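Students often ask why we bother encoding 3D structure as a string. The short answer is that it lets us treat folding as translation between two languages. Here is a chain of 153 residues written in the first language.
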Amino acid sequence: PVIAGMKGSAIENFSCVIYNIFLMNCTWQAGRDAPADTQYFLYWQKSRDEEEMECELYIQDENCRNVGCIFQNVSIGIEKAYFLVNGSSKDSLIQFYDEYIDLYKIEKLMPPSNITVNCDEIKNDCIIQWQRPQISHSSKDLCFKYEINIKYK
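And here it is in the second language, the structure alphabet:
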């Protein structure tokens, strides 16, 4: 297939992470051969049934070029989400970049909450309890692994 646009003008190093349960942050770098006036625009579609939406809150570099986006109220569905970044320039056509991403794979989990420690000096033992972290997606019965580091002072 012929990709319209100037070679080397598409964005590079696209990546997204979901954090704090419902925020998503996507970032990219301008194409190394993109003209100086190139501006990029991010669109995404959570599933095939939903509408494609443009980023509402862009992150810009010192040249006022869009190099990222912050999304609020993101929820994770079962389908891969579709991301498209296209660009515009007065001088030439800009190549687009697109990618399908499983959102659950990019979620950065919150730490466990309500951690309690009860120690019994007579028995010389401690009981440590916590609540499972909240997650953005609905697979509530996933197995979580925890690592506890205990430092004696």
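Translate back mentally: The two ends are 64 Å apart (CA to CA). Keep this in mind for the problem set.
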